[in-house]
Amino acid sequence: MKSLKNIILFIPMFCFSQNIDLYISLLHEGNSSGVRDQLPELVSKFPNDPDVLYLKALMTTDGMEALQLYGDLLDKFPKAKYAPDASVKIGEYFYARGLYSQASSYLSGVLTKYPNYPNVERVIDLMVSSFQAIGEEDSAKYYVYLYKSMFPQLDVSDFGYGDSDRKKIDLYEGPWGASRRNIASFWAARHLGLLRFYNPTFDALQVPEIWNGLRVVTPDFVRDAHDLNIPVHVWVVDEEKDIRRLLSWGVDGIQSDRLDILYKVLEDVHSKRFSHAM
Predict the structure, then answer these.
(1) Are residues 223 and 115 in the same domain?
(2) Is residue 231 part of a domain?
(3) How far is CA 128 from the centre of its chain?
(4) Is the C-alpha dihedral spanning 78, 83, 88, 89 positive or negative?
């Protein structure tokens, strides 16, 4: 009886899954009217189903709202059937909006997270176009050949590269410091509320505390970086009070021309931590 009950439960779920696939196929064919009629009932009956969430995002005409729905799907159901498609949709949104730094950063990590995604070429093409749009040709080449190592069948000539380009690329595995464009991209993601979609392509933010009169490093800046597991290194800091303040904010490294002052502060901080531990 137990196995029969499982079969009975399986049949409607299988049919439901097949229906969702059908709805999505109809959308891809440009037939959205019938799907739109069914969507409210589907959302009402299955509000927490990842496939329905994906379908709802596809049907949402407001780009930012759709972006949030794709993000919710990935946060709650990272291994769902349509999670890879949702991830690509986020990259497509950034690209379509001209947010090429965000697009290149996000798309460069999609295939690492979802190596079984069927349309590898589509992801790489968007990624390359995004990097090229911001003048990051070397980054585009790096990731193309990185993915070539993951997908041997990939034809790099489809993206305009050849053997001579491969010889110029040293697949250095890091660590990478953030470029000026990386820093600008991180800054923009913070202020646009897009950090949940930010995929860093570097290993550390090495920044001045203030640049051209603009304050770069704040406690919130450090916290947001740490939420993404990005260490923050600040340069060049020579005043003792500034070194102490930055350390209290949680920065991970300080570059200074006054090693005597830096050493004194670090020794003092270390001794206080040691005494508290005792």
Answers:
(1) no
(2) yes
(3) 16
(4) negative
Beta bridge mates, 169: none
Q: Which domain holds residue 123?
A: 2-168
Q: Considering the domain boundaries, does residue 187 fall inside one?
A: no
User: Number of folded domains in the chain?
Assistant: 2
Residue appearing with tokens 């005597």: 260
- 194-245: pLDDT as tens digits: 999 998 888 999 999 998 899 999 999 999 999 999 999 999 999 999 999 9
CB 124 within 8 A of CB 161: no
Phi-psi region of 151 (alpha: psi -120 to 50; beta: other; left: phi over 0): beta
**Would you state the structure tokens that stand for residue 47, as one six-digit string?**
């509000």
Strand, coil or helix: 214: strand
77 and 156 housed in the same domain: yes
Predicted model pTM:
0.75
For residues 248 and 269, is the Cβ–Cβ distance under 8 A? no
The residue among 168, 190, 214 that closes a domain is 168
Residue 124: name the closest of 138, 142, 143, 106 by CA.
143
